[in-house]
# Entry
Amino acid sequence: QGTLDFITIPTTGDSTEFGGLSVARRHTATMASPTRGVFATGKNDTTSTYLKVIDFVIIQTQGTAVTFGEISTNGREQAVGAGNKTRGLIAGGLNSPTPFQSIDFITLATEGNSQDFGDLAANRFGMSSMSSSTRATFAGGSTPSNSDTIEFVTIATTGNATDFGDLTVARTVPQGLSDAHGGLGE
# Structure
């Protein structure tokens, strides 16, 4: 697809077209700063290609995303994004049949290629992600069997993910969201 829509959160109503990604694809890892929305990796169904591209939009304006850089590893889909206002993380993913264990990071204010952050405990794709200003968590997903694992990293430092706990049920492609105090996973 590649189409971006937006809503204005304080009001109700239908979404409106924002613009598009620089390359049409599905299953991107997403993250944002107060000014930029970032979309990393994904799979282009027309060419059946796993992409390394990272692109971004300025949230306050509408239009087509422009290239930010590329991830440091092979292209993939079903990676997840997390981060804070300074740094974005891209974790896991799938380049079928191979799942990924790596976590990459970018500095959201500057364009460029991602760098190695560390690794998840196991190769996983289709996770949910949640983050605060200091910590990012990655929950569930597939190894390729469903996982109940929750792991975390400290966003400001690089390193491997650490065990946080377990979901009540092993699941793949759960959804996650968070505020400053905690996270919810479905």
Q: What stands out?
A: The mean pLDDT is 91. The chain is about 0% helix and 50% strand.
